[in-house]
Design a protein that fits this description.
With 173 residues, this protein is mainly alpha-helical. Helix content is 69%, strand content 3%. The chain is built from 7 helices and 3 strands, in the order αβββαααααα. Strands 1-3-2 form a 3-stranded antiparallel β-sheet. Strand 2 and strand 3 form a beta hairpin. Helix 1 crosses helix 2, helix 1 crosses helix 4 and helix 3 runs antiparallel to helix 4. The protein starts with 15 loop residues before the first helix and ends with a helix. The mean pLDDT is 84.
């Protein structure tokens, strides 16, 4: 059992190298989780879109305005009341994670995160029906490079980048 009643006269700070190594290790784990989450989201989006359209007019149950043929799965996903569930499900996951993160066990929180990543992919899958694969890849890599550069800048300069939030949000709009 830990000794909670011991008297200490002063706190000892860890060396800067030990603190930096701990922060580096922690951030690496966070970025690994987020990277794998992005892969899960991308694969779920691609799979949902790939199974929702077909090039065979005989296997199609409908046709989109851009001329693509829709399978039964695509009609269910994009042209039925289920589309609202698919669209709003990520919001439900965000609410569960934000309000229940302190109550969830670590395995439950991780399972919820992986489910969120997959559902987010299905929710974003309609992007593949509208834009080309090259356009999607280009925007993804631009976004990833911007995130990486800003993260590296904030980590190396130790600056708080939250002040740039409103400026960058206006750029997004």
């Amino acid at each position: 059992m830990a000794e909670y009643d011991r008297q200490t006269l002063g706190a000892r700070a860890g060396s800067a190298a030990a603190v930096d190594e701990g922060l580096r290790s922690y951030m690496l784990r966070v970025y690994n989780y987020m990277g794998v989450g992005l892969v899960v989201t991308g694969l779920a989006a691609w799979f949902a879109a790939a199974t929702a359209i077909t090039t065979n007019p005989d296997a199609a149950v409908g046709q989109l305005a851009n001329g693509q043929y829709v399978t039964q799965w695509g009609a269910l996903l994009y042209a039925s009341p289920l589309q609202w569930v698919v669209m709003l499900a990520p919001l439900a996951f965000v609410l569960v994670l934000s309000f229940g993160i302190n109550k969830l066990s670590v395995p439950a929180a991780q399972a919820t995160f992986w489910a969120f990543a997959a559902v987010m992919g299905v929710s974003l899958s309609s992007i593949f029906l509208v834009y080309t694969d090259a356009s999607i890849a280009k925007v993804f890599f631009i976004t990833a490079a911007t995130f990486g550069a800003m993260s590296l800048y904030g980590y190396t300069t130790k600056r708080d980048l939250t002040q740039m939030g409103s400026f960058l949000m206006m750029g997004l709009i």
